[in-house]
Amino acid sequence: MNSAPAIVVRDLRKQYPQAKANAVDGVSFEVERGGVFGLLGPNGAGKTTTIGILTTAVVPTGGEASIMGFDVVNEQVRVKQRIAVVPQRPNLDRSLLVREILTFHAAYHGVARRERETHADELLRELGLYERRNEKADRYSGGMSQRLMIARALMHKPDVLFLDEPTNNLDPQSRLFLWERIRALNEQGLTILLSTHDMHEADQLCQRIAIMDHGKILVNDTPTELKKLIPGGNSLELHVETADPARLAEQFSALPGVTKVDEEAAAGEDGVRSFHVYASEAQSLVGSAAQTILESGARVRDISVRRATLEEVFIYLTGRHLR
Amino acid sequence: MSESREDSRLHLALNAFRATLHRDLVVTGREFVQFLVQALMQPLFFLFIFGKVLPGIGLAAQGFTALLLPGIVALSSMLASLQGVTLPLVLDLGFAREIDDRLLAPQPAWMVSLEKLLIATVRGTIAGLTIFPVGWLILGSSFSVRTDRLPTLALMILLTAATGAVIGLLMGTVIKPEQISLMFTLIFTPLIFTGCTYYPWARLNILWFKIVTLFNPLTYCSEGLRYAMVPPFHGHEIDTLGIGWVIVALLFGIGLCGFAGTRAFLKRVVS
Questions:
Q1: Residue ranges of chain B with pLDDT lower than 50?
Q2: Chain A nearest C-alpha distance from B133 (Å)
Q3: Distance between CA A265 and CA A215 in Å, rounded?
Q4: DSSP helix, strand, coil percent of chain A (3-state; round to 5)
Q5: Interface residue of B101, B265, B266 to substitute, partner A, most A CBs within 10 Å
Q6: Fewest CB atoms less than 10 Å from the CB: which of A152, A238, B73, B238?
């Protein structure tokens, strides 16, 4: 059995015509066989373009990428044979019945008739769609469409499954169901690459995570290691009633060991600002931070020490501004 | 793992192509009545008004019906294949993206567009053929088609349907969803009325218009079908564009539009 990585990406670049910056700008990573790899990043970070290149829908302008040893540009037919894609938005064939969506997909991939009939029924039962197999997909809810797209993806027994922001528009039940399915599929040996901006999702599912922004990978590590990126692994959150938040932020920055201070209006509290103070030893700053606030004449509403979540790592690395 | 893993790329691609074609045949079969209504409604009325009513009240010359019928076959066949590609493709590439599943099948993307052309040609051919029984029913005794040029007739229907398909592919990939209604007016109306469907080219007496019609592929289809269908009138063959030129022009047009359409298609699906 070959143990080479399932996905290899080397210095991948994509510049769209008329675009000033590269959508993907020198990205490199590997995904082991049987791994679950998360591409995390804000909207427009280059996740979908990266997935597009790996799934042959986008031609890179530089670098190289391969799936199961096959080059995504020069060996497209071989690549397509081994991958499956669950896209962001439903793209189900609305001219066909649900069951036919599965059987025709398998037929496109050369699966023999008897095998595709049996496999379709198995998957429809497993995903709770069997009762409504003879309907058209446009009568399906968002969650059902998602399940159907997963069933479709599995019909030709791919080696690598791409999920592009799979739980974006799902209700909590569907999301939990999907997570369970993803774990189960991975246990069966399927390599999975998923993109998301849901940190909790990435934390739950991925063995490795690459955080992308502006077409570049900022970090690529396990969720546990990523959380250590925030100095001390935690931060101080302070809610303060103050007239001069900028000055206060400056004073927090001057406290020993502080690496970064973020400041914003506290949700639901008029005139209250919320400060995130990142430091190597955040809990030891509680006293001095409180004192700083009192001396400045402001009033403390709340102080708490927070453990780093992936979301904080993400914000720490990519900043707070809107895309 | 299934054995297909080891199959040659050609085998994989041909298989995907065949399955895609099968899918389209199933869908076409299921929507057949709808397809027929769509393809036949307009020609049916045209035949009735221009071929039956107007000659009946003396507003159209005798023999006009025989000249009109080939034009209607050409128009129906071309529009059926053209519409079979354009509208679905505009919607699909614009937002539905249902085509993605076929693009992700183990076949090169150009085979997906080739399959679209093939199925559209089939649809156009069926639409063209159905005009004959319908025309026979509507026109009754004034229905007349010569039977000594059947191979040419078959070839002409096929070429007409294929021409519609390549134009449809080009339009379908170039037009954006929000431009559909405007483009249909801008393209269809001139296409229909400058295509020699309702009049033979040789009889046109406005020179500039005669030249304009030569830029419309439908002119060649109508004229070629006229050559293959209209019986001699009082012992005289009717004047049409030379059948050799018609076939050459159509083959050239199909090649050109097919190439441009496929390129445009690839640009849309692979960025």
A1: 1-3
A2: 29
A3: 30
A4: 40, 30, 35
A5: B101
A6: B238
Residues in chain A closer than 8 A to B27 (CB atoms) = 95-96
Nearest in space to B191 (alpha carbons), one of B45, B75, B65, B67: B75
- Give which of A70, A99, A64, A96 is closest to A83, Cα–Cα: A70
Top residue of A22, A54, A81 to mutate, by most chain B CBs within 10 Å, is A81
pLDDT 10s digits, A35-53: 999 998 888 888 889 999 9
Give Cα B56 distance to the centre of its chain: 30
Report d(CA A209, CA A219) in Å as an integer: 8
User: Using the 8-state DSSP alphabet, how is residue A128 labeled?
Assistant: T
| pLDDT tens for each residue of chain A, 323 residues long | 567 899 999 999 999 988 888 888 999 999 999 999 999 888 888 888 999 999 999 999 999 999 999 999 999 999 999 999 998 888 999 999 999 999 999 999 999 999 999 999 999 998 889 999 999 988 888 888 989 999 999 999 999 999 988 877 778 888 888 888 899 999 999 999 999 888 788 888 899 999 888 888 988 988 878 777 766 567 888 899 888 888 888 988 888 888 888 888 877 777 788 888 887 777 788 888 888 888 888 888 888 887 667 777 777 777 766 65
Q: Are A231 and A280 in contact (CB under 8 A)?
A: yes
Q: For helices A98-108 and A113-126, what crossing angle results, to 10°?
A: 140
Burial class from Cβ neighbours inside 10 Å (0-12, 13-18, 19+) for residue B103 reads buried
A179–chain B Cβ distance below 8 A for any pair? no
- Does the CB of A113 have a partner CB in chain B at under 8 Å? no
Give the type of residue at A97: L
Tokens standing for residue A296: 């400045």
For CA atoms B87, B90, B94, B98, the dihedral sign is positive
pLDDT digits (tens, 9 = 90+) for B134-190: 999 988 888 888 999 999 999 999 999 999 999 999 999 988 888 888 887 888 889
CB distance from A59 to chain B under 8 Å? Answer: yes
Q: What is the pTM of this model?
A: 0.82
**Nearest alpha carbon to residue A204 among A221, A223, A185:** A223
Chain-chain contact of A58 with B96 (C-beta, under 8 angstroms):
no
Side chain identity, residue B56: G
User: Percentages helix, strand, coil for chain B, rounded to the nearest 5?
Assistant: 80, 0, 20
Residue of chain B nearest A88, judged by CA positions = B97
Please report which helix (H) or strand (E) contains residue A263, including its range.
strand A258-265
B243-269 helix and B217-229 helix, angle to the nearest 10 degrees: 140
Pairing of strands A160-164, A83-86: parallel
| CB–CB contact A108 B19 (8 Å) | yes
